[in-house]
Amino acid sequence: xxxxxxxxxxxxxxxxxxxxxxxxxTFDGDAGRRLWNTEQSTADRTTRSCVSCHGADPTRPGxxxxxxxxxxxxxxxxxxxxxxxxxxxxxxxxxxCKWTFGRECSAQEKGDILSYLRRQ
Length: 120
Fold this sequence. Notes:
This protein is mainly alpha-helical. It has five helices and four strands; from the N terminus they run H-H-E-E-H-E-E-H-H. It has helices spanning 5-21, 29-37, 50-54, 86-101, 107-118; strands spanning 40-41, 47-48, 62-63, 70-71. Helix 1 (5-21) runs antiparallel to helix 5 and helix 2 (29-37) crosses helix 5. The longest helix has 17 residues, at 5-21. The protein is globular and about 35 Å long.
């Protein structure tokens, strides 16, 4: 099923507007790329980053390090369902930020990562 481009843009633009309303500044896709690649120490004394499960190239499938399940590409250009449902975006930011960084991501971090992913 193809998702209209306007749906992706509308959903992502609304999320970015909401993050700005929460105090975030200008979003930077390069900052999002750096955050995507930054390894964090975890409570279980391992390190992980977004790359650990999603891979360095969001246009490629990833593999979850704990469950070994395949993760579909994050890039909307390859997977048109990505970034089209606000509820899913927030659900995964909450889970993945806590698991990867040991905390919730800030509005700035979410906006930077969304800006990075939407251009993939």
